[in-house]
Design goal:
406 residues, alpha+beta, 3 domains, three-stranded antiparallel beta sheet, 17 strands, 35% helix, globular
């Protein structure tokens, strides 16, 4: 083993070495500080605001895009504040409108389902949503047992499995759906009462309660596919109340609230299904603050798997269900409703009964213009609109024409 010899460092170079070490540390810390500054500094302009949360939230369904620094606040400060605010809003939105979220502190939709035949106080945002549904006399929210039955279909991994879960192909399942829809459509069997500005009561008759016990029904109310319209409104209202109006919130399934009062131009695609083929015949251009609702009876993205299943034979199953029968219907394959005065939920509750129908009642559709709600939809090789001021960009390669209806 070699012998280790201690070697003394010459001390005459120590001052120089210390100086160089200090200089190196200064450079390192400066570079590190610059890197941190770059990470913490946000450039002005458009940016998608991310949610910073490990708690269940609705951000997977939504995109909040904001023009940072366009107001009185610098982009960095605004970005930090929006992340914090949006995270809080997204968490509460999920908790309020999802049946699977149990809370000891929040009076949400699950809380209503757990307090049948009781007068209960609910969260103001939920109360607002339930009041709108009751006012519109839309009974889709009562189809909770039917929506639950469809969940197995949408989670299917193959056509064989999907066929086994498809109510239209399973007589026993269809019989249950027909019976459940019968209860859901009868106000004597189930009804939601808005008692005052804070209180509601979900009344369920004994016959329906007995049916629920027999079939293991746990929920009587479910926003289901309509949920994101109400969440979009809730997020938008909270942002506006906090003074943030230089952006827009949109969901993957077609609900958009644009908060801006500027001349910035935006566009929303209009799709058209013809058999198993899906086309993009036009885009709706718009500016300024407005709400938009895009309904369709077919999937477009992978995220749509929660609401649709497309069989290889061309059949498409969706949650666009007639509340009277629990069966799927669509008068046209797609429709966009928009308004500068109505919210997403108000538009949805107005056009959904016309969309979910055997045929399109054009007179009823056009009558909505009196409420400031306009529509655009494709049929055959035409795109129909009832807004004389609409800005529609047609896809020239597909040969569609624009038609204004009154």
């Amino acid at each position: 083993m070699p012998r280790i010899t201690n070697i003394e460092v010459a001390r005459k170079n120590l001052p120089l070495r210390i100086t160089l070490l200090i200089l190196a540390l200064v450079i390192a810390f400066t570079a590190f500080g610059y890197g941190i500054s770059e990470l913490l500094t946000t450039d002005p302009g458009w940016k998608e605001i991310e949610v910073n949360s490990t708690t269940l939230n609705c951000s997977e369904d939504f995109s909040l895009n904001y023009n940072l620094g366009a107001g009185q606040t610098d982009a960095t400060t605004e970005n930090k504040a929006l992340i914090t605010l949006y995270s809080t809003i997204a968490e509460k939105a999920y908790q309020l409108f999802n049946n699977d979220y149990a809370s000891t502190e929040l009076q949400n939709i699950r809380y209503v389902n757990e307090h049948i035949n009781e007068a209960i106080t609910v969260d103001p945002a939920l109360h607002k949503a339930l009041s709108a549904i009751v006012k519109a006399e839309n009974r889709s929210i009562y189809l909770a047992p039917v929506y639950a039955e469809y969940s197995a279909l949408f989670l299917s991994q193959s056509d064989v499995e999907a066929a086994q879960n498809d109510p239209a192909r399973q007589p026993d399942t269809q019989a249950f759906i027909s019976a459940a829809a019968g209860f859901a459509n009868d106000p004597a069997m189930i009804n939601l009462e808005i008692i005052d500005s804070q209180t509601v009561r979900l009344t369920v008759a004994q016959a329906y309660l007995d049916f629920a016990v027999e079939y293991g029904i746990e929920n009587f109310l479910d926003f289901s596919w309509m949920k994101n319209a109400f969440i979009a409104d809730y997020i938008a209202d909270e942002l506006i109340q906090a003074g943030y109006t230089n952006g827009y919130i949109s969901s993957y399934d077609g609900f958009t609230r644009n908060l801006m009062n500027t001349d910035d131009k935006f566009a929303l695609n209009l799709y058209h299904r013809v058999g198993t083929d899906v086309y993009l015949p036009a885009a709706l251009e718009y500016t300024g603050g407005c709400s938009l609702v895009a309904l369709r009876d077919f999937p477009v993205t992978d995220a749509d798997r929660w609401h649709y299943y497309a069989f290889s034979d061309g059949k498409i199953a969706s949650l666009m269900l007639d509340p009277a029968t629990g069966t799927q219907k669509s008068a046209v394959s797609a429709m966009i409703g928009y308004s500068v005065s109505a919210s997403c939920s108000e538009i949805l509750l107005s056009i959904a009964p016309l969309f979910i129908a055997d045929s399109l009642d054009t007179a009823a559709v056009n009558s909505l213009t009196g409420q400031g709600i306009y529509t655009v939809y494709p049929q055959d090789k035409a795109v129909y609109a009832n807004d004389p001021a609409i800005s529609l960009v047609l896809n020239a390669d597909l040969g569609y024409t624009a038609k204004t209806v009154e």
